[in-house]
Amino acid sequence: MSLWIPGPTEVRPEILAECARPAIGHRTEAMSALIARLDPGLRLAFGVDEASPAQVAVHTCSATGLMEAALRGVSGRVLSIVGGAFGRRWHQVAVSTGHDAVALDVPWGDCVGADQLDRALREQGPFAAVTLVCNETSTGARTPLARVADVLAGHPDTLLLVDVVSYLAGGPVEFDRHGIDFCLAGSQKALALPPGLAVFCVSPRYVERAREVEHRGYYLDPLKVLDGHVQRKTPSTPCIPLYYALARQLDDIAAGATLPAGERPADAAAAWRARFDVHARMQARTASWAASRGLELLPSPEHASPTVSCVRSESIDTAGLVAGLKERGFEISNGYGELKNRTFRVGHMGDHTEAELEELLAAADDVLGAG
Ligand SMILES: Cc1ncc(COP(=O)(O)O)c(C=O)c1O
After folding, report:
1. CA distance 306 to 170
2. pLDDT tens sequence across 167-176
3. pLDDT (tens digit, 9 = 90+) per residue, 26-64?
4. C-alpha of residue 9 to centroid of ligand 1, in Å
5. I want to staple 85 with a disulfide (CB 3.0 to 4.6 A). Which of 138, 184, 231, 257 is the partner?
6. Domain 267-368 - what CATH class?
7. In the chain, which segments carry CATH 3.40.640.10?
C-alpha cells in the first residue's frame, strides 16, 4: 500500500534501516553526538538565520505534546486562530492548560485576514500569545506567515506560536524573518519519518518569558527539554531509533539524496530549496489534475498547501474514490470531520516523488472513469 494520507506518510527503507540500529544508552557520548548532529539540519528546516540566537530542540512526543509544551511556557491570555481541526485543537489545549483562550474563527478552508487579526488583537487584547496552524491539514490551507508577521509587528508584546506540523520540510519556514517565537512539527508528516518525535525552534524572548512562568509541568516543560538539548542530554529516555532516523533524513535532504535523479544542488541550502520546489510542483500537478476532473481545491489557489491538497468532491462519490484507490494500492484520506464526503485529501508530502504522484493520479482516473 502506498501511503498518500496527510500523515503519517511513506517512510523510505533507508530511514527504516536507521531505526533498526543496535540500542545505545542515552547518557553516552554517542547519544550526545547524535543530538548535536541534528542541529544544522533543523536550523535549515526552520529557516533560522546563521547568526540567530534562536535554538532548535527535539522531544520524544507527538506534535500535540509540543502544542501543550509551547503553552506551558506562556503566562497570560491566548488568541487562537481556528480555521480547521488542528487550529481548534490548539485552542482546546490552551483552555485545558488553564489559559484564558479566545478563539478567532475563520471559515474552514480560508486563512485569517490581516485586518481580522489586527482587530481581534486590538479589540479583545492584550494577549500574551497567538497560536496559529500554518498548514491546516484538515483543509489544505496554508496561511502566509508574512501576513501574520506584519500584523504582529504592530503588537510587539504578543508572542507568535506556529504549528508547521504538516509543512516543515515541505515548504520554507522563515523563523527569524517572520518573528516566530515557538515553531513546532512532528516527525511523521513532511519530514517523512515514523511517528513519535517532535521538533521545535524557540526565540530568546520566548525563553526569557517562559523562565518567569512557575509550574511549567515536567515532561512537557519546554525549557527542561530545550536546556537538555543544548547540553546534549535529554531529561528522560528518548526514542533513540527516531533520533537516528531524523539525523539520516536531515543529512540526506542536505545532500540532495531525496531529489529527483540528476538534480545536484550546490549546497545544503540549495538542496532544501530544491526539495520545496518538488512539493510546489506536486501541489500544482494535483490541482491541475483536479481541474481536469472538474474539481476544485477547498482553499483559494494562493492559500493552497504544498503538502496537502484538499479537493472539493461534492460532485463525485468520495468514499468510492477512497475505496477504489485502496483496491489499487493507494491510500488517500476522506475529508476531516465535517468535511467528510465533501472533500478528499492527498498528502503529497515527504519523500513522495512526482513520478509516484502520476501513478496515483492515473489510478484515480481509473476509479473515476473517463471524465
Ligand atoms: C497541523 C497539525 N497539527 C497537529 C497535529 C497533531 O499531531 P500529532 O497527532 O502528531 O500529535 C496534526 C496531526 O495530524 C496536524 O496535522
Report:
1. 7
2. 999 999 999 9
3. 999 999 999 999 999 999 999 999 999 999 999 999 999
4. 13
5. 138
6. alpha beta
7. 14-251
